[in-house]
Structures are given as structure tokens and as C-alpha cells.
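Look over both lines:
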Amino acid sequence: MSEVYATRRSRLRERCNAAGTAAALISRPANVRYLAGAAPQGAVLLLGRDQDQQDQLVCPVPPEDRPADGRPDESLLLHILSTPGRDPAVAAADLAGNQGSEALAVEEHHLTVARYRALDAVAPKLRLAGLGTAVEQLRLIKDEEEISCLRIGAEIADQALGELLESILVGRTERHLALELERRLVDHGAEGPAFPTSVATGPNSGRPGHRPTDRRVEEGDFLSVCLGAAYRGYRCEIGRTFVIGTSPADWQVELYDLVFAAQRAGREALVPGAACRDVDRAARQVLDSAGHGAALQPATGHGVGLEIDEDPQLAPAAMGKLDACVPVTVEPGVHLPGRGGVRIDDTLVVRPEADGGPELLTITTKELLAL
């Protein structure tokens, strides 16, 4: 893996050189981990101005040896601060100035105003420049090792959800079910949940973004679940909706079939070269034509990786096109306040038609099950 991280840093260095800023300071934790193999608490990465200058991982304290946090690339120079409480970013800027760098690219979108001013003050002869989202753009297309981590995370989430569905649900609270799902994720090898698990029952399923409460599952409820597993830092997502009881009401079947059709349209639109907004439109049009346009979510899906919500965004105003090997979610939903709602959410990897089309990572059935 050391070679992988070195190659990633070389690609970023090429971008910096093209922009006239050879050295770079990476402070966003997910970006640090992508380039360094690990992101110890508070650590930043200083990218040297050329290949002959060793890149440095600047840490406030020695990194802990925890597999879940990753391990720093062995080719990096570990610089542990000797002064307690000193900002690693400020220390890294000082190092860059002492090494003769004239300019330093920084992640302005991640820095506070106070931190930016501190960087500017510590090395007044060092010109600060914006790095923009250069690292995030590098992270868009995943290699097969990254996709493998997502695939394993999806398998863990599928296992946890499948086991829950085999248990008795009536009478249990949303909060209890959410906690059990998260425990099962860890039992099956996840580092933990990729995000706070959502369990919504009955009228609560009609509230987008619902957080579990002490409401108990009742016969006739919609049960909407959204969870994800974190595995080696990579995060996937799955969402399913079920009916509690033996015979769903007609309106539940109708609503479910509508959302299923929208989700299928979005999945089928995931081809290399497709505009991100067109994927959103494919799913959105199905729901809009049925009169649910006003209640739709801002986006049909988003990228996943070291963060659960990263680029690309599948939204009406999204720019750009999809590439192969980009993992995204497709998660349309319709939520009827006070009544109930349906959300179907999958994690997929964009693949060309020659390779079988989009690869579905989350494989729990999308059939409307009566539990």
C-alpha cells in the first residue's frame, strides 16, 4: 500500500506544480488518510515541494496503533510536536518556510479564519494559496482496493439488517432496533456505523432524517431503516422499508412500488459519462409525475468513500459527469407527514456496460416484505 499512497501524493504534487505552488498542507482528516494511510487525531500532512523532499505527517502526539484508524505510510517522515498544545498546521507551515518553500497550498475550505491567520503569521515570507478541492477530486475515482473495502462494508450491513429482520419486531422501540443494528455491524467486523443509524416506524417514517425515538413498532406500520458500515475507513449505505404485519394496505403497496420504480430508474442511469443531474432527473421524474415533486429530497444520491457524503452529488443543479469506478448511493424517497413514508437506498459502483453495468454492493432484497 505504501506505493499506492506515494502515487496519490505524486498526483497531487503534479497538480500543485502546475498551479505554481509546490508545497501543500493537507488538514482535512479524510484527505490526510487518503494520502497518508492514516489520519491520527489532529494530524496534518505536509507535502514537500519536490520528490527529493520527504513528505511529513505532523502529529500533536505519537499515533496510536489502532488498525481501525489505519497505519501511516512507512515512507512518510513522522514529525511529532515537542510543544504540547501547538497547532500541527501552524508547525507544518513553519517547517515549509524553513525548507525554503516560497508558496504553500492550503485547504481553505477546511480552515477557520483564525487558523488561516495563524498560518500566515508564522511564516510571513510564505505565500499562502488555495488548494481548492484538489484532493477530493482525486478521491472521486476509487481503485479496486477501495472498492473492495466498500464491498465488505456493504456485506456487513446486509448481514446486520438480514439478522434483524429474522427477529421479533413488534413491541420494540426504534431506539432499541437502531442500537441492535449498530451492535451487529461491529459483531460482523465493522469498525462501527458509517453514520447514526436511522429507524423510523409508522408516522415517523413520514419524516425525512428521522432519528430513533422510544416509539414502539406496531402492526400495520411502515418500518424504514437506513444504516451503513465503516470498514477500514470506507463507508457504505443501505436503506430499506418494510411493512409490519401480514397484509400491507393498498396505499402502502402503491407508494412502495412508486419509490421502487424511481430507484430503479436512477440505478439504470448510472453509466460512465452520464451527467450527475441526469441521474437525479431519471429518479425524480418518476416521483414527480405521480404528484410527489414538492416533497422530494434535495438530492437523489451522493458519492461515498472515506466520508459517507462526498462528491459527486446526484442533484438537480449538480455539475459534472460520472466516471467508471465511482461509488454512489441512489436513495429516492417519498415521505407523507403524519402517515408514513418509503425510502430505498443502495450503494453502487459505476461500471461500463461491457463490465455488466453498475455494480450493486448492497444486495438485501428490495421486495416489499411483510414482517
User: Anything to note?
Assistant: The longest strand covers residues 222-227.
